[in-house]
């Protein structure tokens, strides 16, 4: 994708501070960090959304993220906790339309919060929602 900033990084046409890469993934420091050590893990093959990415690559993003989390915790960078964040779609907060997993080191005092309203669903409503999703999961191409 010619106008995708992450694809330019993968091709070497834009600078980045690479932490790790292999044939399918690249992990780099983000340009707009929320904390020191904030890293993005991306697929090298362009995928604007999760539905465009192969499952194997998705699993590898999380595997690389887990290894980076271990490295952060072992480093001098403050990382009492780690958040993974992946926004899929504009309404979910995605700003760069190339899949990317944020690996965000956290501390008790960093002030970063993910807050919003909580629904008060009862068990019957949760069971109904589970059935709706299960029908698509089992009847579609998502069977395991």
Automatic annotation (TrEMBL):
Determine the domain of life of the protein's source.
Answer: Archaea
Q: Which residues form the HIT domain?
A: 5-113
Which GO BP terms, alphabetically? nucleotide metabolic process
Which keywords does this Swiss-Prot/TrEMBL entry list? Hydrolase, Plasmid
Q: Which parts of the chain are coiled coil?
A: none
- Residue numbers of motif Histidine triad motif? 98-102
User: What protein name is recorded for this chain?
Assistant: HIT family hydrolase, diadenosine tetraphosphate hydrolase
This protein's species is Natrinema pellirubrum (strain DSM 15624 / CIP 106293 / JCM 10476 / NCIMB 786 / 157)
